[in-house]
Predict the 3D structure of the following.
Amino acid sequence: MTVTKLDPRFKDEVSKLPGGENLKRCFQCGTCNVACPVREIDEEYNPRKIIHMVILGMKDRVLSSDFIWLCSSCYTCEERCPQDVRIPEVMDAIKNLAVNEGYIHNAFAQQAETVGKLGILYAISAFENKRRSRLGLPELPSQNHEIKEIYKITGLDKLLRKREGI
Amino acid sequence: MTYAFFLGCVSPVMARQNEISTRRVAREIGVNLIDVVDFACCGFPIKSVNVETSLLLAARNLSIAEELGLNICTICSGCTGSLTEANKALKENDKLRGDVNKELHKIGREYNGGTRVTHFAKILYHEIGVETLKRKVQKSLEHLAIASHYGCHYLKPSHIYGKAEDPEFPRSLDELVALTGAKTIDYEEKMQCCGGNILGVDENTALTIASRKLDHVTAAAADAINLVCPLCNIVYDRNQRLIEKRLTKSYQIPILFYPQILGLALGINPNELGVTMNRISVQGLLTKI
């Protein structure tokens, strides 16, 4: 890694996004790593290091990585962080930026596509609705068109089309 | 006591016992749950991809409940977190509310901060109350030992819930279990996440995280796990056999949603609480009652 590959504005980009506001408060104490249930099993996920990489400006390396998608969003680190960095929110800001650059983990891309198409995460089939009727449960709509509109309004539909996948 | 019933996406497909037992218990104790066909995704699954879209999805649901003049009752911790967080941010931040409303107007909706979001378990705990519920118990579950799994979004981030409960040492689910007469079980790493959120990203890590909870609960000799989130249930109930196979373990520990536990104590027929839909059989448990 040479200095020329670093982008000193990367930390500002992340800080400007919703959730990224407190990024620069991090003083690298590592409380997040100690609290993290994922980190305990998989050393590849290292929230302290990810934040350090962002502050150093390692933009391409961070945004194209798959480790940024490993946060389980349990908020244990957020509750314990002495600097109120709100790490899961920072991770969301980083992932949002990755998506803008065309990087998105397949699992999240599939979820986002399904919600965009149906308005819900799991399809409700006619069979499912028959079963619900038999159980005395109200039938559920199989689609919600307003969600498609929302995707158009925010441009998420276009972002998902340009994805490269990881 | 009337609420707009926010089913969420997971329960109706992957955890019908959650929906069925909630509806049945609500009827029993006089909580009126109104189905709302216009509700859609809460926004939670989209937050990692696009925060703006996630917020709009949440705001849209909030605006629908507001139009009906109802507060929202949720049965999924993910939905509760997403809707509560959006509601708080939009109520507190005038600029954000203005921006979101500009977008919502394009689909003919508007958010004005007129609704509240509460998980069904919190309605039971805070609004109906432990003492009232205790008086309704018909059948003490005194022969059962139950370990509560709080999960994450039921309590955290605590600032969105007004720090109503200590996120490191919560008591509400244990007190709800105790009122049924069942013994509440403490166990190691009680506040550990289920790992469900990364199931699609790194299955082995997710299943290993889950197995540790099942290890600890088994070591504490619990008869069952009590939970309040269908995503946690996917991990512990629907994936329990896979965890056993993958990690050469043996658990067979029943996973119950709190309304199933309360329903049994209220004397409701188990079949009306969706017990046949639990993947890990609860038959052995029922013979103990």
Observations:
- Chain A has a mean pLDDT of 94.
- Chain A touches chain B through 59 residues (CB under 8 Å).
- Residues 106-161 of chain A form one domain.
